[in-house]
Design brief:
Layout: E1 34-36, E2 39-41, E3 51-55, H1 64-73, E4 78-83, H2 94-106, E5 110-115, H3 130-139, E6 151-154, H4 168-181, E7 188-191, H5 202-213, E8 219-225, H6 232-244, E9 249-254, H7 265-275, E10 278-281, H8 307-314, H9 319-322, E11 346-348, E12 355-358, E13 368-377, E14 380-387, E15 391-394, E16 402-411, E17 423-426, E18 435-443, E19 447-456, E20 462-463, E21 466-470, E22 476-481, E23 483-488, E24 491-496, E25 502-503, E26 508-516, E27 528-530, E28 533-534, E29 536-537
Parallel strand pairs: 3-4, 3-10, 4-5, 5-6, 6-7, 7-8, 8-9, 9-10, 18-29
Antiparallel strand pairs: 1-2, 11-12, 12-15, 13-14, 13-16, 16-17, 18-19, 19-26, 20-25, 21-24, 21-27, 22-26, 23-24, 27-28
Helix pairs in contact: 3-4, 4-5, 6-7
């Protein structure tokens, strides 16, 4: 079982503006996967969005043959395969790697191969450096040559724990350049530090420089989303920054719960679908050490899916509804018949920020596998969400606004129906000054970090703000970031910094703090007021 230590949460740091100062250049290749304009493309220039599952081959090699068949049966187009360099675990040698690649291809799965012995380097004593991972890839290079259409090379899993992670940028750059010098033409994937979760934003703030250091401009960044990503705002902000900067990003691992916190898997999957970003759930089976709940199926038995497996595979924005087989394997299906159009949707439970849509099912000569909900405007349409069933709950809408929604049906071969009729939905008004607060903490007994997100639920921007709350016990703030504050007794008064002054209508700001506390008494404040208005707590 992979090692994962609890991740210390910290507040959002101010973003280094230079990260997004210029769009990194893209260099197209024709031999296999390659990056262009921030997107991962196949050799034939088709856009490819990973939808897949992690499999722990290094520890369960005898399970791999059946596991890959079963993973393909979920609709996955990608499998991320755990390999060992021989430093922490028994080495997967050249012949074994070649066999894994062959089996991926036989099952029409894109193969993301990762070296796992780097996990938690700097904090985990047995972990090895990215340089050692490069040594490993060079030692098995003959099994990978010519496989650029089928294989993505994930250099090292979670290369740095929570110690020494500032070296990630230089070490990743050096690893990429060594692999290119050695002749690797593959798309390279690099994991974030901080046990993959990048809470210190080292990868986020240095991704543009690392991407530019690749002579082929063919590197994809991988974030692992566990307890650090426990709110939709955190998920959307992190992934959105990469998309805005035209830097390729995938969610290389995530789960529905974890010992370091409760990740928001619904937001991860919905945001990935909305932004066209790949994701791979952890993991097929065989987890131990207290995180057995991350098994997608029990005992490697595909007929015994866990709650997590059912959610990932068959839930909204899940694998079965959103996965598209790689074009390099396509072109053999005889199914060219599109489903019929779904019924015109009807809207219920309309609020100031959301609504529920329902529609009559479409029919197909094989089976309808997904429905795409779109917003229709005078200039075209835009994707909203994809679901497996005939209802969709929409969130994040703007108050007092008219929306026109319609639905398409899709089958497993990717055939899409004509569009349904449209339904007009007008959201309700939200009182000016309405707000919500998300308060999250990481507690170490005598000290803790607090992470606070203020959301403006009103119809007008808030310019200049103060947030007041009271600790329930003897907590005392030592330092803040993204805000200024004072504390008198248990009462805390926080005001904005210049860069967090404005909270747009429907938008949010985030600040964090470090504080001391008495063990066992670190409760959550019961009331938050923003500029004198009481906020809801989420």
């Amino acid at each position: 079982m992979r090692s994962r230590l609890a991740t210390a949460a910290v507040g959002l740091a101010a973003v280094v503006a230079s990260m997004f100062a210029a769009t990194p250049p893209a260099q197209a290749a024709t031999t296999g996967f390659h990056v262009s304009n921030g997107r991962l493309l196949e050799a034939g220039e088709q856009d490819f969005v990973m939808r897949g599952i992690n499999h722990a081959h290094a520890w369960y090699p005898t399970r791999t043959t059946q596991a890959l068949k079963d993973i393909k049966a979920t609709g996955s187009n990608t499998v991320r395969v755990v390999l060992a360099t021989g430093d922490q675990w028994t080495k997967n040698d050249t012949a074994d790697v070649a066999n894994v690649v062959s089996q991926c291809k036989a099952n029409r799965l894109v193969c993301v191969l990762e070296a796992h012995d780097t996990t938690g380097y700097g904090e985990q004593s047995a972990a090895v450096s990215l340089s050692r991972a490069v040594d490993y890839w060079i030692s098995v290079q003959s099994a990978l040559a010519g496989q650029e259409k089928y294989v993505v090379l994930n250099i090292g899993n979670e290369p740095y724990g929570n110690t020494g992670y500032a070296a990630w940028t230089a070490d990743t750059t050096a690893a990429i350049q060594r692999l290119r010098t050695a002749g690797f033409q593959h798309t390279l994937m690099t994991d974030a530090p901080n046990w993959g979760q990048d809470w210190a934003f080292t990868m986020r703030d240095n991704a543009a420089a690392v991407f530019a250091s690749d002579p082929q401009r063919n590197t994809v960044f991988s974030i692992h989303m566990y307890g650090v990503f426990d709110t939709a705002a955190e998920v959307s902000d992190y992934l959105g920054r990469f998309v805005q900067a035209k830097l390729p990003i995938v969610v290389g691992e995530f789960g529905n719960m974890h010992s370091d916190g409760n990740p928001d898997e619904d937001a991860i999957m919905a945001t990935a679908q909305q932004l066209g970003i790949g994701y791979m759930g952890w993991s097929w089976s065989g987890n131990g050490g207290g995180v057995e709940y991350l098994d997608l199926v029990t005992g490697f038995d595909a007929t015994r899916p866990s709650a997590w497996g059912t959610r990932l595979i068959d839930g909204a924005n899940g694998i079965r509804a959103t996965s598209r087989e790689a074009a390099v394997f396509g072109g053999t299906t005889a199914d060219t018949q599109a489903p019929t159009a779904p019924g015109t949707p009807a809207a219920t439970a309309v609020t100031s920020s959301g609504a529920t849509l329902g529609w009559a099912a479409a029919t197909d000569n094989t089976a309808v596998t997904a429905y795409d909900v779109v917003r229709v405007t005078s200039t075209g349409e835009s994707a909203v969400t994809t679901v497996a069933g005939t209802t969709a709950t929409l969130t994040g809408l703007t108050a007092s606004t008219r929306y026109d929604f319609a639905v398409y049906a899709r089958d497993a071969a990717g055939n899409r129906s004509t569009r349904s009729g449209t339904v007009a939905v007008t959201t309700g008004a939200t009182p000016a000054g309405a707000c919500s607060v998300a308060y999250r903490l990481s507690d170490w007994g005598t000290s803790f970090n607090g992470d606070v997100t203020i959301r403006n639920l009103g119809t007008a921007a808030v310019s200049g703000w103060s947030l007041d709350f009271a600790f329930p016990a003897a907590q005392h703030i030592n330092s803040l970031w993204n805000a200024k504050g004072t504390q008198t007794g248990q009462a805390v008064h926080v005001t904005n910094e210049a860069w967090t002054q404005t909270i747009p209508a429907g938008g949010s700001v985030n600040f964090g703090f470090n504080a001391s506390s008495t063990p066992g008494t670190n409760g959550v404040p019961s009331t938050f007021t923003l500029n004198g208005a009481t906020c809801s707590i989420v």
